Amino acid sequence: NIPTVMKGHTPDIMAGDPSREVVNPDVKEDEGYELVWSDEFKVDGRPDPTKWNFEKGFVRNNELQWYQPHNAYCKGGQLVIEARRETDMKNPNFKGSQASNWKQKRAKIAYTSACITTRGRKAWKYGRFEIKAKIQNKAGLWPAIWFLGIKGQWPSNGEIDLMECYKGKILANVAWGTKEKRKAKWNSKKKRIGPGWDENYHVWRMDWDEHSIRLYVDGKQLNHTDLSQTNNGTQEFNGPRNPFHQPHYLLINLAIGGNCGGDPTHTPFPSHYVIDYVRVYQKKNRNKHKNNHKNNHKKKKNKINNHSQSQEKSPKNNQKKKRKAAGTPAPACAPPRPESDPLPNASESISGVSSEKPPETR
Predict the structure, then answer these.
(1) pLDDT by residue (tens digit) across 92-139?
(2) Which residues contact 139 (CB under 8 A, 6 or more apart)?
(3) What is the DSSP code (8-state) at residue 124?
(4) Are residues 112 and 66 in contact, defined by beta-carbon separation less than 8 angstroms?
(5) How does pLDDT run across 138-148, given as a tens digit for each residue?
(6) What is the C-alpha separation between 122 and 118, in angstroms, rounded?
(7) By three-state DSSP, how is residue 192 classified?
(8) Which residues are catalytic?
């Protein structure tokens, strides 16, 4: 059994902090959005189990932390993810230094943290997503807010990194599949943050519809991805043709070390990643449009059927129309472009495809 981690110092929650000013979640109404899901973390204790699941153990990217639920708790209207340095925790999956799996090579657990996720609870297709949080920009820490598609192997399921922070930079990334297994194509943007930036709360936002994904921090756009350019290189890995036309679930985590996080040796612990709220908005008339589209399709189909029936009743009229049309050449129409074909100048349509790639393993 993994020993329970006792909670240490709780971060100060200052009622007078202007960066924690309460925002009315209904203010999006003038833009056609309505609040469809949220967590304001108002009840102290464990996060709401009807909304959140937990990742457990060593998970990805050679990260140093062991994920466990004990390191995430709600207090004072906020979710706190607490990363701790451990001194006497054994890895229950240890199989020796020669084990083929890195997760089984470590005899001890040096750090613990938490990753909460809506996987198995809730996933969304399109909408506006807002998360207000305070991160710590310190060596070895790697906080993130990200989304994964529900169908397909990574990266063919699609990945959206609304926020990653490590080595003094915040990143906003979108990734999808190529023809190679577990090889992603990334549209990645990064911004260096200065001293004191992590002392305040910041709002990360994603606007996602059938045409594009836009990622923001504090109202400033960091990344724009044109979804006409994000088809997977192959459907061999069980992903949809375009992974961003399927529902995605949310993950919020504080990783340590690993492929990108850096060396945490001299970083003081415990360290806290504090989330003030998570809110999901969707267009009010989205379902209405869907129903209208279905109704229009039915009307069109009925109209075609009625027209066909009337033509069958008038064979003479059909023969006259056929004779009249015989001398008229067909219009020179180009066949429709298959979805898999690249659009003209496709390489120019996606800005900032990064050669410095985020981690490949998810």
Answers:
(1) 999 999 999 999 999 999 999 999 999 999 999 999 999 999 999 999
(2) 167, 262, 263, 264, 266, 267
(3) B
(4) yes
(5) 999 999 999 99
(6) 5
(7) strand
(8) 159, 164
